[in-house]
Amino acid sequence: MFDFWFQESRAIARYYATKYADQGTDLLGKTLEKRAIVDQWVEVENNYFYAVALPLVINIVFKPMFGEPIDVALVEELKVKFDKVLDVYENRLATNRYLGGDEFTLADLTHMPGMRHIMNETSLSGLVTSRENLNRWWNEISARPAWKKLMELAAY
């Protein structure tokens, strides 16, 4: 099937977005400059958003599922950090429809799994809904037919 093997979700997403760039939505950016902005926001997602959202979701959602205690002090510390990260997103989305600019891109797509957990499985959705532009963005990207179909298939 493949003549090579690789892992890491963002690398896989970039690979398929490149391989099928001529089909469907252009997820990478139409110009070199737009592609750089998309890459930048994919990195922001990995290094700032995900770095805080993942331990929040682990503590709030998964630890209780396995009977493990929540690290309340860590959760409170992470909420403060997450609030600051979301301010950056609110500012970006005040002047852009999507993170990469005027069109849905990989920058938006990479945020969707973590945002789904934050919005649907934690008590933190208010951090998003209280921000006009961030909330608009999430409502728009999560209403995409492909996302709705995936959520249906995954039984979420």
From TrEMBL:
Subcellular location: Cytoplasm, Cytosol
InterPro entries in alphabetical order: Glutathione-S-Trfase_C-like, Glutathione_S-Trfase, GST_C, GST_Phi_C
Catalyses which reaction(s): RX + glutathione = an S-substituted glutathione + a halide anion + H(+)
Keywords recorded for this protein, A-Z: Cytoplasm, Detoxification, Transferase
Residue ranges occupied by any GST C-terminal domain in the UniProt entry: 31-156
EC number: 2.5.1.18
CDD domains: GST_C_Phi (cd03187)
GO biological process: glutathione metabolic process; toxin catabolic process
GO annotations of cellular component type: cytosol
EC class: transferase
Primary location: cytoplasm
MF (Gene Ontology): glutathione binding; glutathione transferase activity
Domain of life: Eukaryota
Family: Belongs to the GST superfamily. Phi family.
Name of the featured protein: glutathione transferase
Lineage of source species: Eukaryota, Viridiplantae, Streptophyta, Embryophyta, Tracheophyta
